Amino acid sequence: MPTVVSAPAPSGQAEFEPSPLHRCDRCGAQAFMRAVNAGGQDLLFCGHHGRRHQPALAASGWSVTDRTDAINKTAGASTAFGA
Ligand SMILES: [Zn+2]
Question: What pLDDT does 6 receive?
Answer without folding.
Answer: 56
